[in-house]
């Protein structure tokens, strides 16, 4: 298990934006400059525009997919129903509603078939109510133990995840501390390299300007001699 730091150090840039990762987050101060941030963002967007295909059209070139289901009629019919967003009415839940009980109308009061349908509907509703009562009795008898088991499992998972989170956070804090110490230890050297780099750029610019001035002066002398 990694050693937990008493005062964990977090990169300032990660505090500002967790999706941003800077290799020198503890000593890189250029990001504090608004112009530098805008310039960096423009460079990122410019690079993203070179992606092929474009991020907004990365699947547009793919053809539309239409399954054939090996020409199986039932699957094709169901696929068309889903595509048309038609509700599935294969199961009629209204038959379990108490309002579904009815007597045959006066017109069919003498019809044995109508009375049989009404009787069958009554049997369905009675069986449904019986199942509801049975489920409630089973719930009353066993559900408390089921929930106790579920709570115990969740508590164990929560304990394991907490330990894992603690270990990972400790390892991350240790890594950040090492990164900070390493960057601060070498910050003077990096700053010196950066200063030399800027001086070389300035010197190259001065040499370039001097060369242009010399070329222009040479051209003028040639014209004077001519």
From TrEMBL:
Cite the InterPro entries for this sequence: SPF27 (IPR008409)
Coiled coil regions in record: 154-210
Q: Which GO terms describe its biological process?
A: mRNA processing; RNA splicing
Q: Which GO terms describe its cellular component?
A: catalytic step 2 spliceosome; precatalytic spliceosome; Prp19 complex
What is its subcellular localisation? Nucleus
Task: Answer yes or no on keyword Metal-binding.
Answer: no
Keyword set includes Coiled coil? yes
- Key words of the record: Coiled coil, mRNA processing, mRNA splicing, Nucleus, Spliceosome
A Pfam family: BCAS2
Protein family membership: Belongs to the SPF27 family.
Name of the protein described by the UniProt record: Pre-mRNA-splicing factor SPF27
- The organism encoding this protein is Albugo candida
What taxonomic lineage is listed for the species of origin? Eukaryota, Sar, Stramenopiles, Oomycota, Peronosporomycetes
């Amino acid at each position: 298990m990694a050693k937990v730091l008493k005062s964990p150090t977090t990169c300032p840039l990660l505090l500002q934006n967790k999706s941003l990762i800077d290799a020198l987050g503890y000593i890189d101060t250029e990001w504090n400059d608004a112009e530098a941030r805008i310039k960096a963002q423009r460079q990122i967007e410019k690079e993203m525009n070179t992606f092929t295909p474009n991020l907004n059209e990365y699947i547009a070139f793919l053809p539309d997919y239409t399954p054939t289901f090996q020409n199986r009629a039932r699957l094709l019919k169901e696929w068309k129903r889903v595509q048309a967003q038609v509700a599935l009415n294969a199961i009629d839940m209204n038959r379990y509603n108490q309002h579904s009980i009815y007597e045959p109308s006066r017109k069919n009061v003498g019809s044995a078939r109508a009375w049989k349908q009404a009787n069958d509907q009554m049997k369905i509703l009675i069986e449904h109510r019986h199942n509801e009562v049975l489920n409630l009795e089973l719930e009353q008898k066993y559900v408390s133990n089921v929930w106790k088991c579920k709570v115990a499992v969740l508590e164990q998972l929560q304990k394991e995840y907490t330990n894992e989170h603690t270990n990972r956070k400790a390892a991350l804090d240790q890594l950040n501390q090492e990164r900070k110490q390493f960057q601060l230890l070498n910050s003077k050297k990096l700053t010196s390299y950066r200063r030399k780099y800027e001086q070389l750029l300035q010197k190259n610019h001065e040499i370039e300007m001097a060369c242009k001035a010399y070329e222009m002066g040479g051209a003028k002398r040639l014209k004077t001699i001519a």
